[in-house]
Each structure stands twice: as structure tokens, then as C-alpha cells.
């Protein structure tokens, strides 16, 4: 059993805790928060844009630490699960790795690519795993698409368009602070750049148009990922500009040589060469099931001593680079080289 210590009891920390209760071979043995009420199980003030609201939690048998150093010193913790705000990720991850712990850190891996590079080097130096909790490849509709593209069942990827648009988040002070999250073009859009990198690789350049704030953060953008002659031709629109009546929407159209995949909030649809329409069966109806699968993958990585590719620190770092290049393109109005 992989013993997990979660640091950061905001909404995402709660989601990881709830998801881990159904994990195959992982169990939360410790929590770390500066808030004594949360360590006592009072999570009633927590909420987000999906999943259940917080409630009174039974934390019997789970250690509670007010200081991060105490969590890192606990010999009964194998994996540190970092659910703190993004601006804290790099320092916390490096400290955990140097303390001999494996790390699972929520997306985004860090605020800057330079911080991500420090984290990757610290993992290599310590001989420990640095895994990044990008949940999208574990969401059934996206897991199916990733397998279809990467496995080549329907031929090569020709192109696609992705979207991820929310209303402006207001469920915590940290989530709306671009200095702590990077703004929507990092904190939200990195889901898309990670998935695009997973199925299509890193493009040669990006060209983006969008809405930038005076501080340089970007609220909304539409990007063309430029892979050069032969494609694929991939684009994405993402940001926090919708009204509260439409708080969250995501989806895609993916064009393959022998099929088209369509997901737009309804059932995943597969369009075939002969004009047919199929609705692939997807496993799991638990709204937190993707997070449980993510934690299972991390636990499997710890036991095997090798991080799964879906949680790759390098892939997460490349996704962060794409976000920053896209923001640069929004600000300058020019295509920006990536590779």
C-alpha cells in the first residue's frame, strides 16, 4: 500500500482525498494544512466548479500536520500529493524530493518553465518520481480519444479543435489571483496544451489571439498549433469569459484518417468512413473516477519505480511552455517559436 500525504486542503486537496478513498493501492495517511479547522475535519467552506461541496469529514486514523516540514519528516508517508496553489509547487516539490519522497503535484507543474526545470532536476538528483496530476487523460471521453490517436486504430491524426471555457472562478481567493495561478491561460488552458502535447507532440510554433490583462496574464485565447507542412492542423479556444449561466464547457472534434471523434458535452460520438455513427461505451460513472484512476496510476508508479507517461513531469513542463508561448503570442500579435 502506497502511503499518501496531502498538502493543501483547498477544494482540490479535498477532491484528491475523496478520490483516494477508492484507490486500489493508495491510502491517505497524513494531511497538512495551516488551518486547524480543516485538520479537524471541518471542510464545509470548500467548493469548486465540479464535484461535491465540502462537509464535516471523519479523519480518524489520518495524521494532521500544521507544518510542511513535519509531513516531510513522517516515515509513514511514501508519496507527497501537493494540492497547494501553483506558485508554491516548485519549492514544495523540491523540498519533498530532497527529503526522499516521491511527488504527485497538481497541475500546473509550476508557474514558470524555469521552476519546472528545477523540479525535474531535483527528481533526477534524488532518484525519486516527479509526477504531475493532469487528470484529463483519465476522463473517459479523453482517455478514449488519446488511445484512439496514439494507438493508430483509425489512422493518423489529421487535425482537431479543442475548447475549454468557464465563467470567471469565484470559489476561492487563490484561484482568481493570476500571480498565484498564472491566470486562465495557464491554470485552465494547460489541460488543453497537455492533452494536445500527448496526442500530437510539441508544435514548432504557436499563433494566438486573445484578451490580455495589464499584468500580462491572459483571460481568453484561440491558438493555432503550427506543426509545419503535413500538419496536423490543431487549434484550441480556452479561457474564463463565459457568463455564470454556462459555468463550464469542454470538448473536441478530432479528425483521423478513418474516423472523426466528437465530444461536446453529450455522449462521445465516433463517425465512421461509411457514414455510420457509433457511441463508444465508456467505463465509469463516478464523477471523481478520473481522479481515482490518476491516483492509482501514481501509486503504481511508486511501486514500480517508474512514473507513468500520462503523469510525466516532462510532458507537464512542455505543456507549461506552450501556455507561456501562447500568452507571448497574444501580447505581441506574432507567431512564437516553441521548439
Describe this entry's structure for a reader:
The protein has helices at about 10-20, 35-40, 70, 90-100, 115-125, 140-150, 180, 185, 190-200, 290-305, 315-330, and strands spanning about 1-5, 25-30, 65, 80, 100-105, 130-135, 155-165, 205-210, 220-225, 235-240, 250-255, 260-265, 270, 275-280, 335. The chain has about 350 residues and is of the alpha/beta class. The protein has two domains: about 1-135 and about 300-305, 3-Layer(aba) Sandwich (Rossmann fold); about 135-290 and about 320-335, 2-Layer Sandwich (Dihydrodipicolinate Reductase, domain 2). Strands 14-13-12-11-7-10-9-8-15 form a nine-stranded mixed beta sheet.
Short description:
With 339 residues, this protein is an alpha/beta fold. The chain has 2 domains: 2-133 and 301-306, Rossmann fold, CATH 3.40.50; 137-289 and 319-337, Dihydrodipicolinate Reductase, domain 2, CATH 3.30.360.10. The protein is built from 11 helices and 15 strands.
